[in-house]
Amino acid sequence: MSTSRTLVMIPTYQERENIVVVLERLFAANPHVEALVIDDGSPDGTGDVVEALAADDDRIHLLRRAGKSGLGAAYVAAMRWGIERGYDVLVEMDADGSHPPETLPDMLAALEVPAPGSGVLPALAIGSRWVDGGSVVNWPRHRELLSRGGNSYARLMLGIPVRDATAGFRAYRSSLLSRLALETIDSRGYCFQVDMTLRTLDAGEQIVEVPIEFRERERGESKMSQAIVVEAMLKVTQWGLRRRFAPRSR
User: Fold this and answer.
1) 1 in a domain, yes or no?
2) Which domain CATH number covers 102?
3) Is position 250 within any domain?
4) DSSP H or E run through 227
5) 205 phi/psi in degrees, rounded to 5
6) By the 8 A CB rule, do 211 and 104 touch?
7) CA 19, CA 219: separation in Å to the nearest integer?
């Protein structure tokens, strides 16, 4: 989608050590995209670092939020920001270096290839760890088992074909996002990704998975917690039961 306006949305909280490197890699591989950093009041000054970068590079934008209120809320705010300003593609990407921005051109290109058997262009491209060609590097064994198990459980409970529904590296057509009821999303943690996957499929849209090499962060602390895992399991179970006993009712 070389002629499309693409906005890469990067939520941050305590990512001062990573954000400069991530933005440098992003623009080196994708010089024509723009970036919106959504900072949730990072005490380490992440927002100030981004503000200084934005003063010298008009491809960088900053959305400051008062406090930490979850990944889902940050992305919803960024999606609204991007839709209001007319971007064609909105990309989710982590700030910790785990998502390879060098793979973004492949993800954008995948949005221009009709889905097999349908002739319809995908509305969502997911950078997937768990399809052929995908991989994880330097990830603890328990994290890999948790991710694989969680995705298998989501496929079983929700009846969806996506191999990596919890993946956080994704490219959406803004035309899809503008049709979704973003104000009804209350998923705070990583189950936000499953929620958005399900909403995309329920909207009748196609999803394509593009293999990526996912790397564990080298600096800073992971945002994963037991509460995030529990939220995801409970919500996936709830959605699955509703779909079985009351189809299309969520």
Assistant:
1) no
2) 3.90.550.10
3) no
4) helix 226-245
5) -95, 160
6) no
7) 11
- Distance (Å, rounded) from C-alpha 245 to C-alpha 137? 40
The CA-based angle 26-193-184, given to 5 degrees, is 120
Q: CA 133, CA 147: separation in Å to the nearest integer?
A: 17
DSSP codes, 60-129:
EEEEE-SS---HHHHHHHHHHHHHHTT-SEEEE--SSS-S-GGGHHHHHHHTTSPPTTT-PPPSEEEEES
Q: Domain containing 183: what range?
A: 6-245
Pairing of strands 213-215, 135-137: parallel
| Helix (H/G/I), strand (E/B), else coil: 151 | helix
Instruction: Please name the residues in contact with 58: beta carbons below 8 A apart, sequence gap of 6 or more.
Output: none
Q: Which amino acid is located at 197 in the chain?
A: T
Q: What is the dihedral of CA 176, 204, 153, 218, to 10 degrees?
A: -20
- pTM of the predicted model as reported, rounded to 2 decimal places: 0.92
Q: What is the pLDDT of residue 142?
A: 87
pLDDT reported for residue 179: 95
Q: For the chain, how big is the Rg over CA atoms in Å?
A: 17
Q: Is residue 205 part of a domain?
A: yes
Mean pLDDT by 10 residues, the chain (250 residues): 84 95 97 97 96 98 89 95 98 96 97 88 97 93 89 94 96 97 84 94 96 82 66 88 69
Q: Per the domain annotation, does 197 fall within a domain?
A: yes
Query: Could you tell me which residues are beta bridge partners of residue 102?
Result: none
Count the domains in the chain. 1
pLDDT of 244 reads 80
